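Exercise 7. Given the components listed, write out the predicted structure of the assembled complex. Treat all entries as one system.
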Amino acid sequence: MRVEYINPFVEAAFDVLKEVLHTDIHRGELFLKSATQSVLGVAAIVGLAGDVEGRVLFDMSAETAIEVASVMNDEKFTSVDDMVKATITELANMITAQAVTKLHELGFKFDLTPPAIFTGENMEVTDTEVEALIVPVNLPMGKLEINVAVRERA
Amino acid sequence: MGTISEEVKQAEGTRQGKVDFKMVTFSLAGKDYGIDIMKVKEISKANKFTYVPNSSPFVRGVFNLRGDIISIIDLRIMFHLPAEKKNEDALEDMIILRLEDYLIGVIVDSIDKVVGISSADIQPPHPIFGDINIKFIKGVVENEGRLYIILDVERILGGSEEIQKKETSIIPQLFEKKPEVAYDSKDEGELSFNFIKETLATFKSFFVSDVNIAWVKSRFDEWKGIRAAKGSDLQLKDPEEAEEYLETFYSPESGVFWSDKMREAVSAVLPDLSGGSISLWNPGCGRGFETYSFTCILRNRYPKARIKVWANDNDLLAISMAPNLLFQRHDIPDFYSPYTVEGKNGLQFSQEIKDSILFEYHDVLNPNPFPEVDLILARDILSFLPVINQQLLLKEFWEKLRPEGVLILGAHEEAPAGEWDVITTSEMKAFKKKM
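Answer.
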């Protein structure tokens, strides 16, 4: 993954999460992964197109998703209902959009696809031919993993 | 097959004498051995032992047996017997021994059964059983047409006079014992060489293989002299000593802008341009000094060509610096001046050079998603990957390089002669695909 892309994603995730959750967040070590990875339970995916092709996946457990949605809506949720899904989708959209804006300022032009959300148990994601950058984020509500897999258009 | 106790009964039935000695039998390199059942706590299967650095080769590591940490000894390695190669995931047969107050696990080829015999039938050992030093053998016994060699585990794994010592002390103790077993001096040299190999891997993740064995061997001879002069032994005891050993391994002008001498050497091995473009893959580019140097050399050599450089490293910190590398005028040889521009905080490479290079945070062992290249620059990269990954990466180099392409490895690294031709100039060595 192009070095210049990494910071915008990390910064955007921090700015947005800090703002919407009003809390301190900590980042784990970034790392690369290529093989199949397990997905925690609630995964929002945003596609990228333009100078690059790929996608960004936001992955967290159902409990974390419920708590994050509760904080963002100032309302208590108990299950992963439509409102929780809509909230997580929006969060993914906000982070990716801010990252793409930062990248645009640096001269890289991307477009986003509308986000989609997957929920379930024992899910896995496999990227063929692209390696994924994992940004682990520790929230008071639990762990959120941002999984960015993009490559330059040949 | 019945249960073990049935077999024991059966075995007992066939014996004339009184059964007063039972042993667990197992095989090592096709021969049958036995250990007194009173010393055996249990038998078990396990794998993935935790490696203990700087231990003897026959210590496979430690293992958590339901909360007890026990050392695992590979009897085959200890006795210099051939061990069958198992997959990494395959389970090893282990006998857990209870010796006085500690447990120790020994790995054997396969565990057979429990055999009951009369101790009166045990014959004294005879030197003819060559594989294992006679002092470790308690005796030999015949049972149902098979000859079992009974091992004296306390002599092998402790020495009765010091048996009270804790498990942790058993390893050096074993190690001290080794010279008593008569080796000729060649074996000893090979042994220290193997220690060096293992400690380099542990301390510096430097893996000895065909890629670098020639250098490691010649350095070993030098090393003997260096250490003898200092009066210290050959072994590498910490990362600093391992680094000292590797001191002369690193290629000249690593991690700096290349001097004119280096530039000329590199230019000499560059191929003639076949199309309108030239591409370079530079895995392990670090902060990018060599990548920029090489790119400028390419620009100079092929003024009209379209240049494309894929530079990657899995060290995020290092490669983050690469795209906007800053330096001062006096840091660089004059050759590079035309390719630089003055910025606010110092000198940078020109946009044209920067646009040719794509710095990526990337692990070369993951798929490398770019087309064939004309040149590969991978100095001192292979040696720091585990041997299996070295082979994978060499294969990847072979696949990614165009037929006329050139591979540049570290100054002390070799590509396998079966697949690569060496092109040598007075200054450096490079490789071409064997067609």
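Discussion: DSSP finds twelve helices and 19 strands in chain B. Residues 11-15, 160-185 of chain B have pLDDT under 50 and may be disordered.
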